[in-house]
Design brief:
CATH topology of chain A: Alpha-Beta Plaits
Number of domains of chain B: 2
Structural class of chain A: alpha+beta
Number of helices of chain A: 7
Distance between the termini of chain B: 40 Å
Distance between the termini of chain A: 53 Å
Largest sheet of chain A: 4 strands, mixed
Radius of gyration of chain B: 19 Å
Number of strands of chain B: 0
Largest sheet of chain B: none
Number of domains of chain A: 1
Largest interface: A-B, 30 and 30 residues
CATH architecture of chain A: 2-Layer Sandwich
Oligomer: heterodimer
Shape of chain A: globular
Order of helices and strands of chain A: HEEHEEHEEHEEEHHEHEE
CATH class of chain A: Alpha Beta
Number of helices of chain B: 7
Strand order of the largest sheet of chain A: 10-2-12-11
Helix content of chain A: 10-25%
């Protein structure tokens, strides 16, 4: 596709969305900035399991509200348990108040692997890794076979099982073609590090909302960035490193436990 | 050509002949098919949410049926090996039934994959040239190639043999032999 064709597609989509949601919706096509490779840090010693990130993400990224689609899952582990056993963690914890004594929390979202298994599994090349390291999905090319969901070792991908429903007044009009533009029934979606924000130099919504500052975000190629500081000075680890997916999502404990 | 078409029509009339039990069986199968079609219309309208699958279990009955039927289709390979490799006469006629079974099983395989798709109308995206087939890294791309070529091969072999049988001639091994031999690796690939 050349630039002219792309512009036409964007115009068509904007018109379609504006008619459907009765307000002006901008679909951006910002390209990856040169010399940028996004990385994410998450301080497990600070996370209190409040799920504010989950709902800030839903507000920002135009997910379906009925049926609910969340891109972030917060896992709860009992302190002292064999906790890397992700499959046996508690996803649906529902206490009166967080943090609960004796537990700790680990939010999991798309790990933006450098060697993403989902991209290999996609039969139509509807998902790929951008130059700035974000794995994206083209919602107009995805056929909904869900091979990528099966391939993903982190369970980070979500499927629109029903028609995505979101009231007109809850639509975020500032969207990106590869990110938070409204989705269709029967396509796969996932965390894009808020591509519509980060490509303009802003933080992802989950980083902004985190009340305890557990979430760090930055450019892995910039030696002065927050994320590089965390990698160099804290004991970081990545999920399921043995699978050679090479995630750009670093977990660490800022305070030794 | 006209000769074959006429004979095909005569053969087709055999479908409408049978006793009471045969028609009861046909009616039963039609009811099953109608139920499936009605259920699928509901699924197209509301999305795959009607299947009860969720993000945690994103593949269900459709994919398990698909893999099972691939196995059924591939099982014909066990008939071909003794018949054509070791020239074991008594089993040779059964090979044809194996081929026919393979055709039905492969057809069902493709249909199960189709109903499992969230956007069935975009299925052309998976084809090479007009779509964007992710070959060789994607498993489903392999399935598309293997299943379709296996279906075509089986249809060729079976229709050739049935045609010859109907006109009362002996089929030539030199015609179907190579095709059957090509289909063996395809079957093995489809199991994998």
């Amino acid at each position: 596709m050349n630039e002219e064709e792309k512009r036409k597609v964007i115009q068509r989509l904007e018109k379609e969305y504006s008619q459907r949601y009765k307000k002006d919706i901008h679909v951006g096509t910002e390209k990856a900035m040169p010399g940028v490779l996004f990385g994410y840090g998450l301080d497990l010693s600070r996370c209190i399991g409040c799920r504010r990130c989950v709902y800030a993400c839903v507000e920002e990224n135009n997910q379906s509200l009925d049926p609910q689609v969340h891109w972030i899952t917060v896992l709860r582990f009992k302190k002292g348990d064999k906790w890397m056993d992700l499959e046996n963690s508690e996803k649906y914890y529902n206490p009166q108040q967080v943090p609960e004594p004796g537990y700790f929390y680990m939010p999991v979202q798309c790990q933006q692997c450098e060697n993403p298994p989902c991209v290999k599994a996609c039969p139509t090349q509807a998902t790929w890794k951008e130059p700035d390291g974000i794995v994206v999905v083209d919602y107009n090319w995805c056929i909904g076979c869900r091979y990528c969901m099966t391939a993903c070792p982190y369970g980070a991908r979500r499927f629109n099982w029903g028609e995505p429903k979101r009231p007109n007044d809850k639509i975020n009009p500032d969207t990106h073609y590869l990110g938070n533009r409204p989705r269709y029934k029967g396509v796969v979606e996932k965390c894009t590090f808020c591509i519509q924000r980060t490509r303009k130099g802003r933080y992802p919504a989950c980083v902004e909302v985190c009340p305890v500052g557990a979430r760090k975000f930055g450019n892995l190629l910039d030696p002065e960035s927050e994320i590089r500081y965390a990698i160099e000075h804290k004991r970081v680890f990545r999920l399921k490193e043995d699978l050679n997916t090479n995630p750009k999502f670093y977990y660490f404990f800022a305070y030794g436990r | 050509m006209k000769y074959y078409v006429e004979n095909f029509l005569i053969a087709l009339q055999q479908v409408a002949k049978g006793n009471k039990r045969y028609f009861i069986w046909l009616a039963f199968l039609s009811v099953l098919i109608a139920t499936g079609i009605i259920a699928y219309i509901g699924q197209v309208e509301k999305g795959l949410i009607t299947t009860g699958m969720r993000d945690q279990v994103s593949w269900g009955f459709y994919i398990s049926n698909f893999t099972f039927l691939v196995g059924v289709a591939a099982a014909a390979v066990l008939l071909v090996v003794p018949a054509y490799v070791y020239h074991f006469k008594p089993i040779k006629e059964i090979v044809l039934f194996g081929e026919l079974l393979a055709i039905t099983a492969i057809t069902m395989c493709i249909m199960f994959i189709m109903v499992d798709l969230g956007q069935p109308l975009r299925v052309w995206h998976i084809l090479p040239v007009i779509g964007g087939m992710n070959f060789p890294s994607s498993l489903l791309a392999w399935d598309v190639i293997v299943l379709n070529s296996y279906l075509i091969l089986n249809a060729l072999v079976a229709s050739y043999v049935v045609c010859k049988f109907f006109t009362g001639k002996e089929y030539k091994m030199s015609v179907i032999g190579p095709l059957v031999m090509i289909s063996i690796p395809l079957r093995s690939a489809s199991i994998l």
